Amino acid sequence: MNKEKLEEMTPAQQLQWEQQHRPECSINHQGSVKSMERDAALELWGRSVERHNLRYRTMLSDGDSTAFNAVAAAQPYGPTRPITKLECTNHLPKRMGTALRKAAKDGRLGGRGEGRLTKEQCQRLQNYFRSAILNNLEDQRAIEQAIWATFFHVTSTDEDPHHDRCPAGPASWCFFQRARAEGQPPPPHAGHNGTALSRKVSHAVLPIYRRLTNPILLKRVAHGKTQNSNEHAQCHVGTLPQRSLCWERPGGSSHR
Predict the structure, then answer these.
(1) Of 195, 44, 186, nearest to 115 (Cα)?
(2) Which pairing describes strands 58-61 and 84-87: parallel, antiparallel, or unpaired?
(3) What is a single Pfam family found in this protein's UniProt entry (predicted)?
(4) What's the rounded Cα separation, in Å, for the pair 234 and 225?
(5) Is the distance from CB of 203 to CB of 210 less than 8 angstroms?
(6) Over the stretch 127-138, which tens digit does the pLDDT of each residue have?
(7) 15, 26, 141, 226, 231 from 19: Cα distances, Å
(8) Going by DSSP bridges, is the β-strand pair 247-248/254-255 parallel, antiparallel, or unpaired?
(9) pTM score, two decimals?
(10) Is residue 160 left, alpha or beta, with left meaning phi > 0 and alpha meaning psi from -120 to 50?
(11) Collapsed DSSP state (helix, strand, coil) of residue 242
């Protein structure tokens, strides 16, 4: 029974349908999506020892996870066995992109002109941030160094270059380091540093980089895991017509 058909019924018909449907209804939660995630996590962690004789030591979640906060507060394995939170590797770069776009809007740093923080620049910086994580998995310090290398690269000028943190060698992504490895004078930044930021923009985004390179945050994403598979499955389930969904009740009987 879908929502439209229920709305066409009179209150008496709805009540009669609910009474007939209740014995075979499989609903096990009432409330918001966030509360459902929270309650499901509490149930999974709370029964893991009894059912499977194991403890879940980590939870992979997004930045603001009510599910993790609830499980951590519940201490399902006691106060001496805390649960560790892991961030989805895709989530932190998204936070970087969001923060950069907000800074561009609030500080009027976008628009045309050399060194401006445009939407395209924000996306490039977000991609650099993500690459720094994925190229240095399981090495928190290397991730931090790679992120700062990209920041100082895009804020460098001919008069004030800061490429010492960029990877060295002829295969480096940094034009300055490539020239140095080949024994050539560095070419001008104009035309070679495609994501160059002005001094005003650099000062505005520096606090964002400081905040998102916090060692605690980087430690949570160094594993390289994402929530993609879970979100992909949820996306497909959400597009299915209600009549095509099938579930199995305890005892083996299936219902549609």
Answers:
(1) 195
(2) parallel
(3) Mutator
(4) 18
(5) no
(6) 999 999 999 999
(7) 6, 14, 61, 43, 34
(8) antiparallel
(9) 0.71
(10) beta
(11) helix
CB atoms within 10 A of CB 7: 8
d(CA 98, CA 62): 14
3-state SS assignment for residue 254: strand
What is the percent of the chain with per-residue pLDDT over 70, rounded to a whole number?
A: 86
The answer to whether 148 touches 209, Cβ cutoff 8 Å, is yes
Q: How far does the chain reach from its first CA to its final CA, in angstroms?
A: 11
Phi and psi angles of residue 122, each rounded to the nearest 5 degrees, phi first: -60, -40
Q: Where are the domains of the chain?
A: 15-87+226-255, 91-221
Of 65, 132, 44, whose CA–CA distance to 96 is shortest?
Answer: 132
How does DSSP classify residue 24? G
Please name every residue paired with 87 in a beta bridge, in sequence order, or none if there are none. 61
* pLDDT of 233 strictly over 90: no
Q: Which of 133, 106, 120, 135 is nearest to 205 (CA)?
A: 106
Token pair of 209 as six digits: 């980089």
Q: Please write down the long-range contacts of 226-235, taking CB distance under 8 Å and 24 or more positions apart.
A: 226/88, 226/89, 226/90, 227/60, 227/61, 227/62, 227/88, 227/90, 227/91, 228/90
How many residues make up the chain in this entry? 256
Give the DSSP letter string of 184-212: -PPPPSTTT-TT---HHHHHHHHHHHHHH
Q: Which residue has the tokens 């980087």?
A: 218
**CA atoms of 198 and 235, how far apart (whole Å):** 40
Maximum Cα–Cα distance across the chain: 87
Question: What is the rounded CA–CA span in Å between residue 187 and residue 184?
Answer: 9
Across the range 75-96, mean pLDDT stands at 92
Query: H-type helices in 107-256, by residue range?
Result: 119-134, 140-154, 175-181, 199-212, 215-221, 228-239
